[in-house]
Amino acid sequence: MSGQLIGLDNLTVAYDRHPAVHHVSGSILAGSLTAIAGPNGAGKSTLLKAIMGELRPAEGRISHRLQRTDFGYLPQAAEINRRFPISVFEAVLLGAWRSSGAFGRVSAHETAKAREALSAVGLEGFEKRHIGSLSAGQFQRVLFARLLLQDAKLILLDEPFTAIDARTTKDLLDIVARWHGDGRTVIAVLHDFDQVRAYFPETLLIARTLIGWGPTGDVMSAANLLKARAMAERWDEDPRACEPAA
Ligand SMILES: Nc1ncnc2c1ncn2[C@@H]1O[C@H](COP(=O)(O)OP(=O)(O)OP(=O)(O)O)[C@@H](O)[C@H]1O
Description:
Layout: E1 4-15, E2 18-29, E3 33-37, H1 44-52, E4 59-63, E5 71-74, H2 88-93, H3 97-100, H4 108-120, H5 136-150, E6 154-158, H6 166-181, E7 185-189, H7 193-199, E8 202-207, E9 209-215, H8 216-219, H9 222-237
Helix pairs in contact: 4-5, 5-6
This protein binds adenosine-5'-triphosphate.
InterPro entries: AAA+_ATPase, ABC_transporter-like_ATP-bd, ABC_transporter-like_CS, Metal_Ion_Import_ABC, P-loop_NTPase
GO molecular function, one term: ATP binding
Keywords: ATP-binding, Ion transport, Nucleotide-binding, Transport, Zinc, Zinc transport
């Protein structure tokens, strides 16, 4: 692992002036594999979208030297429209736009790489299927194949294993490990603490404010998890409350 890839400096992100993420500072190191964990409504997806550049900071800043094409982003399943009339193979080839351009011709090399990516996610033979006809797990495999083709330096995954069966999750976690082994930087929003502990060396635990960020074993302590839960209970009592517990 080398130096900082992304710096967060006193980052606050808001919707209609209501902060969802408060005053987060820290570094994502190049080549790191980080889970973002926290209760529902903690600001995990908001933080990921801010890192992506999809949401602008209300306060503070995000610093990096990455190009737009260096980011690979997998949104939550609910945010993806599967009625788009394209085949599995076409969906995977969308990952090649970095080299082919949005309307460019796809080279034989990219076509071969798309086939390779489909094989890596266990979807050989699915090339012509319409994406709308796939199961949730099969579709998630397609999206991972697309990311494989994209060749991004930083890969951001928002709840990639929600509603995905154990076998598919294991296969996709192997791909995450492969990205990490290749030296890519991966950040994933996850709900399953066992997965976080088993596969992610670093964790950023958030409950609107940062609770901990560092080695997973230290951050996912009983005391920190209790603190996160207590903060979430406070929002349930008063949904507008957004300042951290003292
Ligand atoms: N587009 C939006 N407009 C207004 N408020 C939003 C918007 N998106 C999220 N929020 C609010 O911001 C807060 C953080 O939401 P976010 O989706 O980032 O949380 P999360 O930790 O990813 O939650 P979950 O685990 O439930 O997916 C929540 O109170 C949510 O209602």
